[in-house]
TrEMBL record:
InterPro entries (alphabetical): PilZ_domain (IPR009875)
Domain of life (superkingdom): Bacteria
Domain PilZ intervals: 7-98
Pfam families: PilZ
Recorded GO MF terms: cyclic-di-GMP binding
Protein name: PilZ domain-containing protein
Amino acid sequence: MPHRTDNRHFYRMMVNAEVKVMINDPEAARVIDGICRDLSASGMAVEIDEPLEMGTLVRIRLESPDASVAPLDATAKVMRCSQESEDCYQLGLAFLDLN
């Protein structure tokens, strides 16, 4: 009998789509282009070219290739940031609010 070794509450869907990461800080407000690598009901993994601190609040926007499907627009919190290579950091984002 197969069993699940992943302890996640939601399954992750593999995605390779452009995403905008907007930092929710009036002093450091800026937009970072990234790539969404996977997506679930509770969060996503995003690759960007600079590190972000854990706990940083961001707004993310993931456009849909289908005009009949609304883009994903959410507020999220950086739960982890790991360096994958010299200019590649992977963020683990937890959704706080879907806008």
